[in-house]
Amino acid sequence: MVEVSEFLDGALTRGVSFFAGVPCSYLTPLIDATIARKDCQYVGAANEGDAVALAAGAYLGGGGQTFGLAMMQNSGLGNAVSPLASLTSVFNLPLLLVVTLRGDPEHPDEPQHRLMGQVTQPLLELLEIPCEPFPSSTQDLQPTLDRARAYMTRSERPYALIMHKGDVAKPANPSFKRASPSACRPSQRASAWSEEIVERPTRTQTLARLLECTNDAHTVVIASTGYTGRELYALADRSNHLYMVGSMGCASSLALGLALTRPDLRVIVVDGDGAALMRMGNMATIGAEHPANLIHLLLDNEVHESTGAQATVAASMSFAQVAAACRYALVVEGDTLNVIDQVLDGNRPRGPRFGHLKIARGIPTNLPRPEVTPSEVRTRLMNYVGGGCDTPMPSNCDEPVSMVAGQSL
Q: 8 burial class (0-12, 13-18, 19+ CB within 10 angstroms)?
């Protein structure tokens, strides 16, 4: 393995000074060090395709003398296919890619990584992007970076390094601090929140409250990828639960498809800030389709917690204003569990409901992973909901109602 400072020093001397990416646990040492160094510029992208476009834009801004680096987990490489095929290829925009190899066929991993682990290198080859392993030793580092720079300069095309687990060593005595969400530009709606933020509910407390209200025959709960699904499983594993693995950001889309197909069900999707940012366009689709049986609950701790707590941009924007602009029928935001009670209140306006709940960071100790497989979860959920449809819930397009901690705006 190589020290992260060695890699960054080598990249900088070859003109790579702009970095963009989406966190992966394999990338944590590299991202954290990049954020901390004053001679590096790092942008946390909402999705992997945006990271590619950001790095390509940096090359344009550098007049061809500097390169951008886009880093991502291979499960997100699919998000980057379009800009890699129709932006960097068409405009001859070189950049360095660092793609982690989750689902390495030689090392057991989570089920959502299996297929992408097999096709990562073939996919890059189909995109006509040459690749090689991320340097695993100091002696390999300089030749690898030389080959990458030479190819990018000569061909004006991307070059990829495939990172295995442990290729980059964590600093023994880290001298940097991870960027804090509090460093983000504050929202103009900050005054709407509680004066004291130290008592925000934990994710476990939030999910426990949700479980109290969802043990009925007509409710389905879809938990976003990451710790949300794992904590929900740890609290109670029910047949009306679906724990998303992979497909980051797609929980709300899946929930919308289910809600439109089965208007007799109450469909609750438990989202996260990083996931919602990655696929925010689906909020507009939900508002346009206006299903009366969909509840969108967003748990926001302002970080990508499962990959090392790198900051998202959630602290600098208002999800509630986005939801209201997308014409959700009810929009509630706050930092107490009362948000859950309000969005689940059956007397609220008909149409999709949105609850934005600020929660504390942190996870329980010894948090288990689900022992049920994704296929088993799918089968039992389908058996739970059955194939029919009872009396449809009407949908109407009343003017959306926005609330902050229970008060109309």
A: buried
> What are the structural domains, with CATH classification, of the chain?
2-168 (3.40.50.970), 192-408 (3.40.50.970)
pLDDT band at 393 (very low <50, low <70, confident <90, very high): very low
As a whole number of angstroms, the distance between CA 245 and CA 256 comes to 17
Task: Tell me the sheet residues that pair with 308.
Answer: none
What is the pTM for the complete model shown? 0.70
Helix and strand tally (H, E) in the chain?
15, 18
For residues 354 and 358, what is the distance between their CA atoms, to the nearest angstrom? 13
Amino acid identity, residue 181?
P
For residues 279 and 249, what is the distance between their CA atoms, to the nearest angstrom? Answer: 5
The answer on pLDDT for 193 being more than 70 is: no
Max CA separation in the chain (angstroms):
68
Structure token pair of residue 150: 């030479």
Q: What is the pLDDT of residue 45?
A: 79
pLDDT in tens, 104-139: 888 777 778 788 888 899 999 999 999 999 998 889
**pLDDT tens track for 290-323:** 999 999 999 999 888 877 777 888 888 899 999 9
* Of residues 345, 350, 348, 331, the one with CA closest to residue 404: 331
| Arithmetic mean of pLDDT over the chain | 83
Q: How far apart are CA 335 and CA 357, in angstroms?
A: 5
Q: How far apart are the two ends of the chain, measured CA to CA in Å?
A: 54
Strand, coil or helix: 202: coil
pLDDT classification of 400: cutoffs 50, 70, 90: low
Cβ-contact 177, 198 below 8 angstroms? no
- Helix/strand/coil (H, E, C) string of 134-166? CCCCHHHHHHHHHHHHHHHHHHCCCEEEEECCC
